[in-house]
């Protein structure tokens, strides 16, 4: 009967709130990833390097992917010099063929992939009217389409083994638009949509009790990608360090969080913006003066 179904639904929701309250008070439990195989794209520098080092610190065997082979070789040496296990691979994540070939090599060298962190990303910091078709395509190929190639390479195995975690390094730009990075924002909005809908699809197929997805949305980072970051209130909307973002990202993965911002206080700003009048939200954005300047004059 529909009444019994409603009672069961309400009871389930109440239990979820109780569980959330317990986690709020005592914190979420963290899972152990020691010995698991983790892949990090864009691992040759910046946030990718920090993510790889943090994973190794947690005991994972790390596969380092980047189109810049000297960069990942250097990170590989760093990890091995501290007793960690890693392998480095040159990989063009925009090529489905290259991704599949490298992921097969990882399976042969390290074993089945348990964790995938899609971190590779680019932007041009160029006003929309000055973007070329080639720049727009390249941004989407690296920032968005590559997720499809990497995820399709690992997801079937994760579901079959009933274990796995996929992490997307998105951006606050995937939640809130900003000038001078329109193509970047659009690519990150697409990543958020991919992760949200894929999580629902996995849930519908009954696999997401064991295969988890996490989307990380940091504020602007001082990695060099954005040459002209700006913030009026650094304590409220800071320019983040890659190290801090990596630690938060890995900790969120260990807790099986679904989506977070870095810092997590930025999520409150995002949610407030969605419930106030659009004109008011724009006034607040203008007042905060947070974003990036164009690289056009460089």
UniProtKB/TrEMBL annotation:
Keyword NADP assigned: yes
Bilayer-spanning residue ranges: 6-26
Biological role: Catalyzes the reduction of all-trans-retinal to all-trans-retinol in the presence of NADPH.
Matching SUPFAM superfamilies: NAD(P)-binding Rossmann-fold domains
Species of origin: Tetranychus urticae
Protein name per Swiss-Prot or TrEMBL: Short-chain dehydrogenase/reductase 3
GO molecular function list: all-trans-retinol dehydrogenase (NADP+) activity
GO CC terms of this entry: lipid droplet; membrane
Membrane topology: Multi-pass membrane protein
Annotated family: Belongs to the short-chain dehydrogenases/reductases (SDR) family.
Location(s), subcellular: Membrane
Keywords, ordered alphabetically: Lipid metabolism, Membrane, NADP, Oxidoreductase, Transmembrane, Transmembrane helix
Pfam family, one: adh_short
Lineage, uppermost ranks: Eukaryota, Metazoa, Ecdysozoa, Arthropoda, Chelicerata
Main subcellular localisation: membrane
């Amino acid at each position: 009967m529909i009444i019994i179904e409603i009672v069961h639904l309400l009871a389930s929701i109440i239990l979820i709130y109780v569980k959330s309250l317990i986690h709020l008070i005592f914190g979420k439990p963290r899972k152990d990833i020691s010995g698991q195989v983790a892949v990090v794209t864009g691992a040759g520098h910046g946030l990718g390097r920090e993510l790889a080092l943090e994973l190794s610190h947690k005991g994972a065997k790390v596969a380092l992917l980047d189109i810049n082979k000297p960069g990942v070789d250097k990170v590989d040496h760093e990890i091995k010099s501290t007793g960690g296990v890693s392998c480095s691979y040159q990989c063009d994540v925009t090529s489905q063929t290259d991704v599949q070939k490298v992921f097969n090599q990882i399976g042969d060298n390290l074993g089945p992939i348990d964790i995938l962190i899609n971190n590779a990303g680019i932007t041009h910091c160029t006003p929309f009217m000055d973007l070329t078709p080639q720049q727009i395509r390249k941004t989407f190929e690296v920032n968005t389409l590559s997720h499809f190639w990497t995820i399709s390479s690992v997801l079937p195995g994760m579901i079959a083994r009933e274990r796995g975690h996929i992490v997307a390094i998105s951006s606050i730009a995937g939640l809130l638009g900003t000038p001078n990075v329109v193509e970047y924002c659009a690519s990150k909005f697409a990543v958020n949509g991919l992760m949200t809908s894929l999580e629902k699809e996995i849930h519908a197929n009954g696999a997401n009790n064991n295969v988890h997805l996490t989307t990380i949305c940091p504020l602007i980072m001082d990695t060099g990608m954005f040459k002209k970051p700006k913030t009026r209130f650094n304590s409220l909307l800071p320019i983040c360090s890659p190290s801090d973002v990596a630690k938060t990202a890995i900790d969120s993965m260990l807790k099986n969080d679904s989506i977070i911002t870095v810092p997590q206080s930025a999520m409150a700003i995002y949610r407030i913006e969605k419930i106030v009048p659009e004109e008011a939200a724009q006034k607040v954005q203008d007042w905060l003066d947070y974003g990036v300047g164009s690289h056009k004059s460089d």
